[in-house]
Amino acid sequence: MHVSMIREARGIPGVVPERYQEALTVRHCALSLVGEPIMYPRINELLMDLHSRNISSFLVTNGQHPDAIETLIPVTQLYVSVDAPTERSLIDIDRPLFHDAWDRLRRSLSLLRKKRQRTVARLTVVKGWNSDEIQGYAELIALGHVSLVEVKGVTFCGKSDASNLNMSNTPWHHEVVALTVTLQQELAKRTAAGGPDAPPLYDIACEHQHSCCIVLARVDQFALDDPNTGQRKWNTWIDFDKFLMLSRQSEQDPSFTFGVEDYTAETPAWATFGSIEQGFDPTDQRYRKKGKAPLYTKFDSRGVPTHDFRGMPLSTLELERLNSVMDEKIAEMGSPVTVVKEMEGGAKSVLDPSLMFRGLVVSSQY
Q1: Are residues 267 and 297 in the same domain?
Q2: Which long-range contacts does 301-304 make (Cβ < 8 Å, 24+ apart)?
Q3: Is residue 335 within 8 Å of 311, Cβ to Cβ?
Q4: For the whole model, what pTM was predicted?
Q5: Does residue 195 sit in the same domain as residue 337?
Q6: Domain that holds residue 334
Q7: Which terminus has fewer CB within 10 Å in the chain: N or C?
């Protein structure tokens, strides 16, 4: 089925022939977006079969079946979705089937402490719904001592009867960055305070601007600090061949155990947080559809553009004009900050003047 779908992409503009050939051989399996995979009663058999075929496993669960998490064999990377920081917002966003969904989530996160392989708390940021309450997120993350915290902006896939979301609920990358920085600072406070519930130290390791995603990583598991330069090097990538070898050994000998550090790989410089590439592999050439190149590339703290699509500074006259437009928009809204409006059916529309210039594109040069 995978090969059949990949073949449909042959000849599409932007598809690299070498990548097409590589994709015909399955190497990774994401058990996600198909319901709750951990409910499958033979999930451990499936995972072992994947590993025997040299296929890595990425399993995503919503944390509603803690007993299944407890008996799960090692996977390449285990995610628990943390969709909301409070019980009330969890009910509003996820509409869970279980009346004790909040308790199930907390227990599932607590069980991650016992897992010696890579664990991830995945936070999907929905603007206007769950993009505040940082302390609540920090408390949940502290329960699991997870290896990684993935903070990702929600992707709007069109209107649906099953969802109240709209395009305004999708955050921009810079907004996800700001939230992640605040979350890291809150976690660091809890680490410094100490105590039995204190989380390990996390720092911002990676970003991928195109995916609107930031990753916090445990310093004790993934960071190497150079004592001479003080610079930090990250090893957040995965040595897949090493993991498959270790997992097979663990399946053959139940007494054999291995941990996160046993199959890490060095993070490329272009994938680290703050790099000019922002997660784009510089050996790749980005393919843009006509009319999809951004009109502006840099913005000030208010969201007013400062550089054009070429990365060149705007003229003083143009800056004055754009600032005037921003002032008018703020005066119209009556507030320089985000405004959340309740819509029909429980939907929330987010109005933010700082974003008014960010979605503009230029097509004449492409």
Answers
A1: no
A2: 302/326, 302/336, 302/354, 303/353, 303/354, 303/355, 303/356, 303/357, 303/358, 304/357
A3: no
A4: 0.84
A5: no
A6: 293-362
A7: N
Q: What are the pLDDT tens digits along the chain (366 aa)? A: 889 999 998 888 878 889 899 999 999 999 988 789 999 999 999 999 999 999 999 999 999 999 999 999 999 999 999 988 888 888 877 788 899 999 999 999 999 999 999 999 999 888 776 666 899 999 999 999 999 999 998 887 777 666 666 677 788 899 899 999 999 999 999 999 998 889 999 999 999 998 999 999 999 999 998 888 878 999 999 999 999 999 999 989 989 999 999 999 999 999 999 999 999 999 887 766 776 778 898 999 889 999 998 889 999 999 999 999 999 888 887 766 666 766 666 667 777 888 889 888 886 554
Tell me the one-letter amino acid at 151.
V
100 within domain boundaries = yes
279 within some domain: no
232 shares a domain with 156: yes
Calpha distance 355→307 (Å, rounded) = 15
Q: Is residue 241 part of a domain?
A: yes
- How big, in percent rounded to 5, are the helix, strand and coil portions of the chain? 40, 20, 40
Judging by DSSP bridges, how do beta strands 77-81 and 56-61 pair with one another?
parallel
The answer to whether 173 and 197 have CB atoms below 8 angstroms apart is no
Residues 93 and 148 in one domain: yes
Whether residue 3 is contained in a domain is answered as: no
